[in-house]
Amino acid sequence: MNFITVKLNALIFIFSFFLFVLLFSYSSYKFIINDSLELEKKQNLNNVNTIVNSMNHNLEHITKITNDYSKWDDTYAFMIDGNKDYINENFREGTNTLELLDASFIIYLNKKNKVLFSKYQEKVLEKNNKDFEKILTNKFSMLNSTSTIIKYNSLFMYIVKAEVLKSDFTGSVQGWIYSGKVITNKNINHISTVFKSIKLSEYLFSKENYEISLSLLKNIKFNAQLFDKELINTIAFYDVFNHSVFSIITKSDRELINNSEKTIFILDSFTAFFLFIITLIIYKSQKVLINYNKLLEIKVNRRTHQLSKSLRKLQTSNKKLYTLANIDTLTKICNRRSYFNKSEKLLTQAIKENKTFYVLMIDIDHFKKVNDTYGHAIGDKVLIEFCMIINTVISDEVFARIGGEEFCITFFNTEEEKINTISENIRKACEQASIKINDKKIKFTISLGLSSRAEYTNIDDILCVCDELLYKAKDGGRNRLVRSSPHSN
């Protein structure tokens, strides 16, 4: 190995090392970051679910309290007779009922939608109570009960409407109770502490990533936006009429991704050093193995060439053996052995599948006279010409020479009428053919015997029948087809 080769190999080694390290760094980065990203998405989804489930729980709490009051016999009586003792016992000054119920307001309406009583914690609502109550009754007049969210002026709130019935849910509806709670930034900040910031907003996004449906808040959509250092969620809430009401916007640091990037840097640095040592060792070992492999390759190629040559000879010999065993040397069609093998299989299949099976035996008329008159060379030409004629008429049938001038054709799953037509076409083609020898033309005819399989189960029995039919054709004047009597096939 000269100096130039060594230098070239060294450059290849350095390039390969840096390429490998680069690919490893990229792969590890993609693998770890992708895993971290999926984990971050799942964690973020869980955090979002915590918020929406807490809000749904708050609405469920208000719904339960409202249903308790609306299905109370004292409330039912109050809606009928307007007894002021009910109000005095439950909502007089100093009772702090709304604070205990964790509600911002409660409104009693009789069945004519007239306000019998209302109480507010929120000064803004209390100041505009007439307008607020009118909006509520108009908005939910078509609903007997509901639990949803609304926006009033700049306030967002939970709203519950419940029918007033007896405690056993009997009696006619005597009115409704509305209750609710104002949703503030302070409220939602208590829900989850995992976010860096969380606030209410009227902002709506154009396309959501996820949809959430809970027991009461059935239509919640949210969009998660990933930035380099920050993750921002916009959670949109819709009311019972599927109208957008408000959004909650959360922000959080992408600590998981940031920590993963630091981990990747440390891992890649350590791996690069480790790979450098390993690659160097492998490079040194390769130099030793290269020469050995070259010698081994030469030996393998030499041996492979010898085996290929032997295999080709074997394949050629096998082809010759197959031809000798199955093909008639003169006519190049199937010989007697091949015919019996193929026809026995077709006969078995015909019996098993109840298909038709016919054998046509053919003998060249006065063939011995042709040999005696013109010689065996001319007789061979007649045999070859005869086979060429047959091959132009038949397609994929088994055609074989089973004796000197005797031939057989096996028809499998072919209609008898078609076989008769083919047989006649063969007879006529031979009758019309002529072989030109110098200035003479030799003509020949054939006799044919056709038999179905009938009740026979082996090919020898069928051939015996064909042979008898063939000799009937000879005795009948030759150049004709004799068929067996009709049998079930």
Question: How would you describe what is shown here?
Answer:
The protein is of the alpha+beta class and 489 residues long. Among the domains are: 71-183, 2-Layer Sandwich (Beta-Lactamase); 336-483, 2-Layer Sandwich (Alpha-Beta Plaits). Helix content is 54%, strand content 22%. It is built from 13 helices and 17 strands. Strands 2-1-5-4-3 form a five-stranded antiparallel sheet, with helices on both faces. Strands 6-10-9-8-7 form a five-stranded antiparallel sheet, with helices on one face. It has a five-stranded mixed sheet with strand order 12-13-11-16-17, sandwiched between helices. A hairpin with a 4-residue loop joins strand 1 and strand 2 (115-120). Helix 10 crosses helix 11. It is elongated.
Features:
Alpha-Beta Plaits, single chain, alpha+beta, Beta-Lactamase, elongated, five-stranded antiparallel beta sheet
Number of strands: 17
Strand order of the largest sheet: 2-1-5-4-3
Helix content: 40-55%
CATH homologous superfamily classification of the domain at 336-483: Reverse transcriptase/Diguanylate cyclase domain
Q: Biggest sheet, in brief?
A: 5 strands, antiparallel
Mean pLDDT comes to 86
How far from one another are the termini? 82 Å
Describe the secondary-structure layout.
Blueprint: H1 3-70, H2 73-81, H3 84-91, H4 97-101, E1 105-110, E2 115-120, H5 123-127, H6 129-139, E3 146-152, E4 155-163, E5 175-183, H7 185-191, E6 197-201, E7 210-212, E8 220-226, E9 230-238, E10 244-253, H8 255-326, H9 336-353, E11 357-364, H10 367-374, H11 376-393, E12 398-401, E13 406-412, H12 416-432, E14 434-437, E15 440-443, E16 446-452, H13 459-475, E17 481-483
Parallel strand pairs: 16-17
Antiparallel strand pairs: 1-2, 1-5, 3-4, 4-5, 6-10, 7-8, 8-9, 9-10, 11-13, 11-16, 12-13, 14-15
